[in-house]
Amino acid sequence: MSQTKPVKAAIIGCGTISHIYMTNLKNKFRITELIGCSDLIQERAAKRAAEFGIKKMTNEEILRDPEIELVVNLTFPQAHYAVSKQILEAGKHCCVEKMMTVNFAEARELAELAKKRGLLYCAAPDTFLGGGWQSARKYIDDGFIGKPIGLNAVVSCSYQPAGDKFDLDPDHFFFPLHPGGGLPFDLGGYYLHNMINLFGSVKRVSGFGGNIDPDRFFLNPSHPKYREPFHVDTPTTLSGALEFVNGVHGTFLISSDASVYDCFSVQGTEASMTLFHPNWFSGPLTLHRPGAVVDEEKNIGLNNGEGYRPVPDKVPLPLLHGYCDNSRGLAVADTAYALRNNRRPRAHFDMGLHAMEIIHGMLESAKTNQVYQMTTTCERPKPRRTGVETGSGQEITIDD
Ligand SMILES: NC(=O)c1ccc[n+]([C@@H]2O[C@H](COP(=O)([O-])OP(=O)(O)OC[C@H]3O[C@@H](n4cnc5c(N)ncnc54)[C@H](O)[C@@H]3O)[C@@H](O)[C@H]2O)c1
Fold first, then answer.
1. Which residue has better confidence, 327 or 314?
2. Ligand 1 pocket test: which of 76, 87, 96, 157 has the largest number of ligand atoms within 8 Å of its C-beta?
3. Of 29, 83, 131, 227, which is the most exposed, with the fewest CB atoms less than 10 Å away?
4. What is the pLDDT of residues 154-168, one digit of tens each?
5. What SS3 state is found at 103?
6. How many A from CA of 101 to the centre of ligand 1?
7. Atom 6 in ligand 1: which residue has the minimum CA distance?
8. How far apart, in whole angstroms, are the C-alpha atoms of residue 284 and residue 324?
């Protein structure tokens, strides 16, 4: 049982995602003590404060409070830069939801600021710390696919201004179609953090596409702006190739113009593995290896399109780590342990910054017709140890 003193934390931004963060920072992790919350919209902060029995504060009160060591920035992406900068300038450690900022230059500036001030600055998404992704990494590191050669990822999701309240008020402000919120920055971040967790830094990227359909129309007859033009000011479809420093080659397609689809697979000299949507902390891992043993009893459900006949060479892999449920805030808890144990946080800003540069590089490459050479590198985050403890027992895997 850890005797570590909990880290007093507060949250700025009380929108959709704040509920699960507060639930977990309050109840799931012992290392965090959630003190208060704020939002530009006072009623939102008041509602969450009442729900979770914490203080409703203003941003300024949080930043001035000497007891608060760590501030979690859950504002929308366009506010990430200004709010994270205020947090760091106030001398507080900062964890920010994805992505760090809406452009690479701002992210680099904040990384420099954190470095200069000696503060911890961590960036979501933190699903790479989940049980499914930690297990995938262990299987790959342990040689289950042989030498890693390639990866292939696609994520698409049709975002259209179809709702009748679309973009009319803060609740319906649809950030995926505004600067910094496009799918490359939104869901793309999950894929990139997980790719970096599996294979490390990227050396070069190429990209095609961008904002392929900037002028759209409100399509819903009940929307007050029906048939009026709607300008999209963010990249929506981007494809590219990534060359990792370790020699792995990857292809990646991200689109908010195509209908819903996702896949993520890795290929090695001896086998390949299909993974799951990186928006989740866990999911099925399947090994595809010629001659892999199939247990017919347990293989029910893995069908090959001809009923439930077991598929040779296709084996479901058990998950080896805890935190398989919705553990949003796990990187905040990990950062709190990093602070107490004087170690590097797993979601260190160099990972967020590197992910930002990959998107930036794909966009630059699309504009210039040139391959983009990455200027940043990042350490692969330290893996969590195996073990399928449940509840707060899992916390021992980040108290290191
Ligand atoms: N919604 C999701 O399912 C989801 C999932 C994972 C991550 N995220 C990420 O979490 C972050 C927040 O997303 P959300 O869906 O909760 O957004 P949201 O729009 O529902 O909430 C953001 C809140 O931040 C507040 N805010 C904005 N600027 C502020 C400022 N300067 N000071 C104080 N408050 C401010 C807004 O008033 C709003 O209440 C984003 O970075 C997003 O990418 C969202």
1. 327
2. 76
3. 227
4. 999 877 766 777 777
5. coil
6. 13
7. 17
8. 11
Distance of CA 387 to the CA centre of its chain: 23
Banded pLDDT at 186 (limits 50, 70, 90):
confident
Q: Which of 248-257, 306-315, 375-384 has the lowest mean pLDDT?
A: 306-315
- CA–CA dist 126, 135 (Å, integer): 15
What is the Cβ-side half-sphere exposure of residue 136, based on CA atoms within 13 angstroms?
32
78 Cα to the center of ligand 1, angstroms: 9
Question: CB within 6 Å of ligand 1 — which residues?
Answer: 12-18, 38-41, 44, 59, 74-77, 79, 83, 97-98, 170
39 falls in which pLDDT band (50, 70, 90)? very high
pLDDT for 300 beyond 50: no
Instruction: Specify the residue with its C-alpha closest to ligand 1, atom 44.
Output: 17
The contacts of residue 142 (CB under 8 Å, 6+ apart) are none
- Sorted by sequence, the CB contacts under 8 Å of residue 115 that are 6+ apart come out as none
Nearest CA to ligand 1 atom 21: 15
pLDDT at residue 166, as a whole number: 76
Task: Give the chain's mean pLDDT.
Answer: 91
Ligand 1 centroid vs 97 CA: distance in angstroms? Answer: 8
Among the atoms of ligand 1, which is closest to the Cα of residue 17? Answer: 16
Instruction: Say whether 273 sits in a helix, a strand or coil.
Output: strand
Which structural domains are found in the chain, ordered by start? 7-126+327-348+380-397 (3.40.50.720)
CA distance linking residue 167 with residue 52, whole number of Å: 29
Residue 312 pLDDT > 60: no
C-alpha span between 9 and 335 (Å, rounded) = 11
DSSP 8-state symbol, 284: -
Distance 74 CA to ligand 1 centre (A): 5
Ligand 1 center to residue 165 CA distance, Å?
Answer: 18
Which ligand 1 atom sits closest to the C-alpha of 328?
Answer: 6
Is a pLDDT exceeding 90 seen at residue 234?
A: no
> What DSSP character marks residue 247?
S
